Amino acid sequence: MASSKQLTDNFLTCSICTEVFTDPCTLQCDHSFCRACITQYLQSRQDVTQSRTIPCPYCRQTARVPDPTRPVGEWAGQIKPSHIILGLMESLDADAKDIAKCSLCEQKGETTPAKHWCCECEISMCDACNQVHGMIPVSCDHDVLDIKEDVKLKKKRKVKCTEHRKNDLEFYCNDCEKAVCHSCCILYHRKCDAVVTVESKCPEMKIILKDKSKRLTEEICDMNSKISENKLLLVHTKQDKSELQSQIKTFCQAARDLITKKEVDLLKVLDRRTDERTGKLQSCIKTAEMAAQRYQQRLQFIQRALESESVMDTYEVYQACQSGKIETDVQTEDADVGLSQEEWRPFINMHADLDKLSTVLDDTYLGVVHVFDPQSSPALYETIGDAGGTDIVVLEVNVITTCVVTYHNVSEIKSFYSRSNTMHHSSLSTDNYAWGLTKVRENQVAVTVPNARQIITVKVTPDLQIVSNIQTPKMYYGLTYLTNNSTFAAGCSDSTCVDILDMSGHLLKTLTNTAVKCPNFILTSETGGLFISDWGKKAVIGLTANGDVACTSNLGLNTFKVNRGIARTSTGHILVADKVADKVVLFTENGEYVRDVLTAKEGMDEPFGLCLHRGLLYVAQWKSGVRVYNFKK
After folding, report:
1. Which of 248-262, 338-352, 404-418, 575-589 has the lowest mean pLDDT?
2. Distance between CA atoms of residues 516 and 534, nearest Å
3. Which of 167, 387, 549, 558 could be a cystine partner for 181, CB 3.0 to 4.6 Å?
4. What is the dihedral of CA 138, 142, 145, 151, to 10 degrees?
5. How far apart are CA 313 and CA 309, in angstroms?
6. Distance (Å) of CA 138 to CA 103, 107, 607
7. For residue range 375-386, what is the model confidence (pLDDT) as tens digits?
8. Farthest CA pair distance, the chain
9. How many Å separate Cα 55 from the centre of its chain?
10. Sign of dihedral through CA atoms 366, 367, 373, 377?
11. What is the pLDDT of residues 483-515, one digit of tens each?
12. Burial (Cβ within 10 Å: 0-12, 13-18, ≥19) of residue 341
C-alpha cells in the first residue's frame, strides 16, 4: 500500500504550483487544481473571455462555466470542490497528527512526540508511556511497533452505527442478522436470544465467506472453461468463414467462367451460322433480282403488244409465247430462291441452344431460391446408380452436384457426379458397413461405421478422400453435425440414447436415454434442436437443444411400419421415409401429419435415406439405387 508521502506526491499535489492542494477543485476532465492557481491561470489567458470556457492546464480540454457572464476572476469559484481529495487530505492529516503525538500524554494536556504504536489499543505512545504500557498485565503482550515512515501500521477499521453515530458497531444479532451498537442492544434487542460480539461472529462469517469463495472460484473456473471453448469456437468460426469465403469465390469464379465460356461459344456459333445464312440469303436475293429483271422485260414486251392496234403484232407475240420463245411461267431454278428446310435447320438448332442457356444458368444456381411447395406433385427427375443405399447427402463441390451414399450390403461409401454429361462415381472402402451420413462442411461429410465403432470424416472433391478415422465409445448409427458448437449428435440403439461428441469422438454429454429407443436417423432443426426418426418407437421425436421432448409425430389412426430416413424442407416441414410402407410422409415442424407425398405409385420401393437439395428430393432405396424427384414450385 502506498505511504502517505507517496499519496501526497502522486495524487494530492497541484500540477500548477507543485504544492499540496489548497481548496482543490476538479474540472470536467477530472483534473484537479488549487482554486487560486486555476484563477491565476485563467486571468493570464486572454482567449478565455471569447471562448467562454475553461481550458484545462493539463490536457487542454475545455470545460463549460455555469455563469460565464461573471468576471473571469470569479469563474474558478463556480467550480465544484473536490470532496474526495478533501476527505483524503483530512484523513491523512488526522492519521499523521494522531501518530505524531502521544495519545496518552494528550489526555493529560501534554504534547509529546510519539515514538511507538500499539496495534491492539490503536494508540501512539512516547517512550515513557510505552514503558508503563508494557508493565500493565493487560497490555504487556500487545504488539507494539516503532513508528517509522516505512512501517505499515495496523489500524482496525471501525464502523459507526447509523442511528447512534457516536457508537461503533461491536455486536451482532443472530436473530435479526445485523450488526448493532451497545445502545441498539439495550433499546431494540433485549428480547433477542443470540446477541454476540462481531469479533466472536467473525470465524463463522469467514467459514461462510470461504464457502462462497470456493463456489465463486468454481464458477470462475467453469466460466473460464466456457470462455476457452467459445474462443476455440471463435477460431473455428473464423477458419470456417475463411474456408467458405474461398469456396464461394471459387464457386462464383467457376460460374463466371462457365457463363463466359457459354457466351463465347454461343456468339461464335451465332456468327458462323449468321454468316452462312447471310451468304445464302444474299445469293438468293441476287438470283431473285435477276429473275425479276427478266420477267419485267418479258412483261413489257407483252404489254406493248396489247397496247398496239396492229393485229399482226398481237399475233406474233401470242405465237412466241405459245411456242415457248417467250417464257411466262416461273422456272424451277428461279422459284427456288429461298432457304430449304435443311438449310434452315442450323438456325432452328441455334434457337434451341439459346433455349438451353436458361438451363445452363439454372445449373449454376445463381440467385435461384427453391421454395418447397407442400402441395406440389413430385415428378421423377433422374435415377442414380442401381445398388441399394442406406443414407445420402448431396453437396455442391466446385459447381458439381455430388451425391454421397452409404451402403448396407458392402463396406464402402460412394460419390456420384456428372461431368461432361457423363455420370462418374468414386468409392471409399470402410472397415465394416457404413450407415449414417451428415454434412460437416461444404466439401466434407462424416460417416458412422457402427460395428467398427468409428466416425469417418471424408473430403469430397467430388472424389472421396478420407480425412480422419475417429474411434467412438459406442456403436453409433444416426449422426448429425451441430454447426453452432462444432459437435456431433450421435444415436446409439444399444444404449437407447443420443450423445453429444466433440470432433475427436469424446463423449461430452448424453441428451436422453429415455425418450428414444432406436435413434438411427437424426436431423438438426433450425433452432439447434434435433429431429429423430426412431423406428423403435415408430415415431419422429423432436428434441430441444437441452434434450427435452418438444414434439412427437402424429399419424392419426395410422403408424409407421419401419420409419427410416428424415429430411427438412425450406418451409420447415419434415419428410420421413417408411421402408416397409413404400412411401415418404410429410409432417409439419410440430409433427402433424400432412400427406403421403411419394408412394409405390411414384416408384417408391423400400425408401431408406432422404436428402432435399435445391428443390430436388434424393431417395436412397434399400435395393434399387437413388431416385431423384423434382419438388420445385
Report:
1. 338-352
2. 7
3. 167
4. -130
5. 8
6. 18, 20, 95
7. 888 888 889 988
8. 178
9. 47
10. negative
11. 888 899 999 988 889 999 998 889 999 987 778
12. exposed
Comparing CA positions, the residue from 365, 244, 423 lying closest to residue 616 is 365
Is it the case that residue 448 has pLDDT exceeding 90?
yes
| 130: helix, strand or coil | helix
Dihedral sign for Cα atoms in the order 582, 587, 589, 591:
negative
Q: Which amino acid is at 121?
A: C
Residue 339 vs residues 1, 277, 342, 353, 522: alpha-carbon distances, Å: 106, 9, 8, 21, 63
Contact 118, 107 (CB under 8 A): no
* The pTM of the whole model exceeds 0.90: no
Find the helix or strand (DSSP H, E) in which 48 lies.
helix 48-51
Burial zone of 62 (CB within 10 Å; 0-12 exposed, 13-18 middle, 19+ buried): middle
Q: Residue 400 — φ and ψ, nearest 5°? A: -120, 120
Query: Are residues 487 and 524 in contact, defined by beta-carbon separation less than 8 angstroms?
Result: no
In this prediction, residue 155 has a pLDDT band, given cuts at 50, 70 and 90, of: low
Instruction: Answer left, alpha or beta for residue 196, where phi above 0 means left and psi between -120 and 50 means alpha.
Output: beta
Could you identify the residue written with the cell 423406428? 535
Q: Of 157, 315, 587, which Cα lies nearest the Cα of 577? A: 587
**591 CB contacts (<8 Å, ≥6 apart)?**
540, 542, 551, 552, 553, 554, 574
DSSP 8-class letter at 494: T
Cβ-count burial of 430 within 10 angstroms (0-12 exposed, 13-18 middle, 19+ buried)? buried
